[in-house]
Amino acid sequence: MSKYILLTQHRSGSAYVYDFMSAHNFIYNKMDPLGEYFFKYGIPISLPDKLMSVPLSPLTQDGFHKNSDVQETKQLHNVSVNINSSDFNHMEFIKKKLKLLKLYDDTGHSIKLMVSDWFFCTDFFKNELLPFFENYTFIILHRNLWDTFISWEVQQKIEWSNPHGKSDTDTSITEILKPFKISLKSVFEIINKNEKAQELYRDVKNSYKCVDMYYEELSDSYLNNFFALKDKQKRSWPLNVDYRPYIINYDDLWETFKTLK
Length: 261
Fold this sequence. Notes:
The protein is of the alpha/beta class and 261 residues long. 43% of the residues lie in helices and 10% in strands. It has a 5-stranded parallel beta sheet, with helices on both faces.
């Protein structure tokens, strides 16, 4: 049975698809979920026991922690690993995490790759990371770029305090969202990011087995059928909110976007 890995942009329905994908990978291939393994955490707190209990010496020798103390090494998943600090070397960090998978990843794991995270190291992404997943099928998840853009800007505004709905009718985000403006510069940035994303998607498609999915076509029945699951239900819902009343310069943004796109 196929092993899947998810590749997409932020605010494109990745939480929804990943939930179903990881269920498939676990049921059919005994693959545990690691989520956004390479960027979200030191070692994710959800890391399966088979990786959390590996011999400590290879970790310390490879520089996963400055201190060889057992407790400190096991606590790599906690917030003391500050990936936002000025002296943090992100390139070395992801290299070591890939090496950890190579050392101890026997059956594979469900992983989500957010394509923009890799813009700063595309050579590593294409020449070292992707070959490790050569036996996987890449699911490339797409969404209407304008909707992706607006959703991203809204989440940035509310500091990601409400990224997913709890039901089909959940509009709780409107309780915290106040009218605001979005810089026209952000439109140029999203267009540029999307061009880079599409280029990396093409690279993946040229060398690996891939399947395209589209946010607008997603449903429980579609994902259950695709992943050969039985009546699994979503655990996160789209935030079905019309953001136009909350974005003061919505029309100007849209006109700029149409011109550039």
